[in-house]
């Protein structure tokens, strides 16, 4: 089932890892978006919602089935071969109930678990928009980050990312 382009999607975004640590309880945000918005537009809303200010980093989404969506601020097209271009690929690929991953700043490895919900009776906003949130978002470049404990393997996540898969 595909989202109705005239309707809104509610996308729950939880921060799983970043800066070498696992975040628990997970800070989260809910973003309203439409099927016609791009993955790049969704990423911008998520990054603003988590208080990120330095945005010249690689970004990538990993969708069900291993489909990857990427882009770079430094060139046109996708950031990596064999990925879809996030500036052109629309959220209409997502079905309500599906889960996907968002990675911001592949060096700091900010990973997010995203879950799509249908927002009934609501029209899509002009741009993806923050609706709600919980938990304190960690600083993008926190001083004293050396005291952060190493990230433990997160449990209970869909196996979208290699770091989320349980060992065989």
From TrEMBL:
Compositionally biased tracts (Low complexity): 145-162
Protein name listed in UniProt: Plasmid pRiA4b Orf3-like domain-containing protein
Superkingdom of the organism of origin: Bacteria
InterPro entries: MM3350-like_sf, Plasmid_pRiA4b_Orf3-like
Record-linked SUPFAM superfamilies: MM3350-like (SSF159941)
Span of domain Plasmid pRiA4b Orf3-like: 29-139
Stretches of the chain forming a coiled coil according to its record: none
Pfam families reported in the protein's UniProt record: PRiA4_ORF3 (PF07929)
Organism (species): Micromonospora maritima
Residue span of region Disordered: 145-168
């Amino acid at each position: 089932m595909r989202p109705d382009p005239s309707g809104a999607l509610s996308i729950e975004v939880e921060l799983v890892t970043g800066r070498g640590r696992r975040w628990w309880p997970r800070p989260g945000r809910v973003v309203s978006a439409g099927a016609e918005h791009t993955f790049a537009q969704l990423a911008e809303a998520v990054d603003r919602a988590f208080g990120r200010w330095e945005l010249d980093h690689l970004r990538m989404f990993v969708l069900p089935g291993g489909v990857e969506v990427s882009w770079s601020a430094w060139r046109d097209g996708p950031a990596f071969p064999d990925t879809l271009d996030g500036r052109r690929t629309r959220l209409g690929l997502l079905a309500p109930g599906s889960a996907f991953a968002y990675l911001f700043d592949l060096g700091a490895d900010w990973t997010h678990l995203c879950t799509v919900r249908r927002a009934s009776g609501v029209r899509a906003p002009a741009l993806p928009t923050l609706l709600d949130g919980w938990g304190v978002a960690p600083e993008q470049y926190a001083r004293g980050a050396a005291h952060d404990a190493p990230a433990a393997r997160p449990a209970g996540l869909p196996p979208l990312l290699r770091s989320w898969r349980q060992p065989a």
